[in-house]
Write a structure and sequence with these properties.
This protein is an alpha/beta fold. It has a domain of 196 residues: Rossmann fold (3-Layer(aba) Sandwich), CATH 3.40.50.720. The chain has ten helices and twelve strands. The strands form four sheets. It has a five-stranded parallel β-sheet with strand order 1-2-3-4-9, sandwiched between helices. Helix 4 runs parallel beside helix 5 and helix 8 packs across helix 10. The two termini are 35 Å apart. Its EC number is 1.1.1.133.
Length: 294
């Protein structure tokens, strides 16, 4: 890798997966520790003025965007401002910016898979913030790659997977929507995709734009939960026996979460040669890592 790579958010689950995967291929990241209050416009300005990497992967707000149950609106506004400043700095210093985004920019009304050509129409505050930061990155920083991911699964202690497994261990009734669909995407697979994109950019390929990636085989949240429980029983025997099906409209997060969140991944395949991997194949290592740290 000829480019000097910077990673903001090296301490979170996706950042750690990216560092691990890079180390296997002798690819290193400059991963600065965030200031006490987290990255903001002023600290980002100082950082990039001092370091000037060739490419930057922004995972600084990964947990809030992809794993948190809810995020305060004021916090999202501050993060939007920071990303806009980051895009300005990347343009100024001619830094390639790789910015993750999410299926949440869509409203879930489309039954077929969303392509990159579909207009975003987010439901909740998080999706709206992601849409606005996408717009600012496109408008401000020409050398960008926006990567929209499907349902990201990681081993973080308070993440989506952890909350589900905690409910499964607590007993009582557990229900998931059987009419909500998406692409589960283990965090190691997401890291593989980011690294593959960086390698192409290292070859000076001007492949700027927006791309979708999600694990192979779209499924329902109910089927995903059943697959996770099946794997988790290798580590815990006191999990609930079964998950009850529930309608998407009856779920407490129905107003925020798209019912249909399947992403079409043809563009990233044709442009970068990145093939979707089966999400089920990533569950054993993901659950193993989760239970080793519980």
């Amino acid at each position: 890798m000829r480019m000097r790579l910077m990673l903001l958010g090296g301490g979170n689950a996706l950042g750690q997966a990216l560092i691990r995967l890079g180390a296997e291929e002798d690819i290193g990241f400059l991963a600065p520790r965030p200031p006490e209050g987290g990255w903001d416009a002023a600290s980002l300005t100082q950082l990039l003025d001092d370091t000037r990497p060739d490419a930057l992967v922004n995972l600084a707000y990964y947990f809030d965007w992809f794993q948190a149950e809810a995020v305060d609106a004021a916090r999202l506004v501050a993060q939007e401002r920071a990303v806009e400043r980051l895009a300005e700095l990347c343009r100024h210093h001619d830094i390639r910016l790789l910015q993750p985004s999410s299926y949440r920019v869509f409203d879930g009304s489309r039954v077929t898979a969303y392509t990159e050509k579909e207009d975003p129409q987010p439901l909740g505050g998080r999706g709206q913030a992601l849409m606005r930061l996408e717009q600012s990155v496109r408008a401000v920083c020409p050398k960008h790659v926006l990567l929209r991911f499907g349902w990201l699964l990681d081993d973080s202690p308070q993440g989506l997977l952890a909350r589900f497994l905690a409910r499964a261990e607590a007993g009582g009734e557990l229900s998931l929507a059987d009419d909500r669909r998406g692409n589960p995407t283990p965090v190691d697979d997401a890291a593989r995709v980011i690294l593959a994109v960086l390698k192409q950019l290292d070859c000076q390929s001007p492949l700027w734009g927006t791309y979708h990636y999600g694990g192979h085989e779209a499924t329902t949240s109910l089927a995903l939960g059943q697959a996770v429980l099946s794997e988790a029983r290798n580590y815990r025997h006191d999990l609930v026996e079964e998950i009850s099906p529930q309608a998407h409209a009856a779920r407490p997060d129905a107003a925020e979460e798209p019912q249909h969140a399947v992403l079409a991944c043809k563009k990233i395949l044709h442009t970068f040669g990145i093939k979707p991997r089966a999400w089920r194949a990533g569950l054993p290592s993901l659950l193993d890592r989760y239970y080793r740290h519980v």
